[in-house]
Design the sequence.
């Protein structure tokens, strides 16, 4: 969509530039503002209180709702001249992230970055343990690592 917007601005006739600026100010700016709030909610890697979870879920739902209303979903948008729809990622944002957040009281803790960090740590530990043959010695080593 951003590539389409950039092309639209570059190729617009002077009389259409006002429409483009209005589109950017009235539609894109509010969408991007909500998206910034969503990112803060999604990357928060700690348990959240109920009111924080609900506020984050509301922002997710509001973003998709605003997109539907302002981008004329399922109809050709007059400026973009293309039919827009709700993508699978927006469906996840609207339905599944709020469900997940309400159930687990966090989203970011289960994010890809955290998993990748843990995966890296786990692999390092496995490399260290591969030369220790005795399972009891392996357990002692793991306990020592955790203690420090």
Sequence:
């Amino acid at each position: 969509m951003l590539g389409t917007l950039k092309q639209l601005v570059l190729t617009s006739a002077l009389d259409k530039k006002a429409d483009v600026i209005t589109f950017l100010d009235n539609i894109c700016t509010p969408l991007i503002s909500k998206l910034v709030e969503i990112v803060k909610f999604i990357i928060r890697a700690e348990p959240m209180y109920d009111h924080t979870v609900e506020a984050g879920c509301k922002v997710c739902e509001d973003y998709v709702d605003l997109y539907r209303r302002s981008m004329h979903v399922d109809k050709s948008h007059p400026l973009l001249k293309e039919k827009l729809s709700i993508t699978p990622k927006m469906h996840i944002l609207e339905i599944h992230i709020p469900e997940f957040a309400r159930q687990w009281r966090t989203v970011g803790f289960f994010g890809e970055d955290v998993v990748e960090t843990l995966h890296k740590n786990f692999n390092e530990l496995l490399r260290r343990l591969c030369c220790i043959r005795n399972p009891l010695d392996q357990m002692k080593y793991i306990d020592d690592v955790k203690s420090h």
Q: What stands out?
A: The chain is about 75% helix and 0% strand. The chain has a mean pLDDT of 80. Residues 36 and 47 are 20 Å apart (CA to CA). The helical segments are 2-11, 14-43, 50-70, 88-104, 112-129, 135-147.
